[in-house]
Design a protein that fits this description.
Blueprint: H1 8-19, H2 24-31, H3 35-47, H4 70-98
Helix pairs in contact: 1-3, 1-4
Amino acid sequence: MIRKRYSNDFRDQAIELVALGRPVPEVAEELGISTTVLYRWTQSQRGAGGASASTQLGGVVQRAGGELDEAAELRRLRKENNRLLMENDILKKAAVILGTLPQPQAKPAR
């Protein structure tokens, strides 16, 4: 049986998507990998001392009225923006790997 090998960067980004709260089956389908492999990666990451993003508070501060501190809201929005940029990058790479997007071609030399 031939086993596919994935780069450590690809693996880390997939684990990060799961840590951010995305369901494993959804991430696995988007990246074109099996759910078993992704579950194994996330379990090994947790066993190595990685903390899940869902267990972290993220430094959000609420005032008495329930509204978020402006600095905390800005941090939250920047974090969300970084997460979305990373997801977009991962999906672009997966699309190239799976052949749904053409790979960028260099201009031919004259």
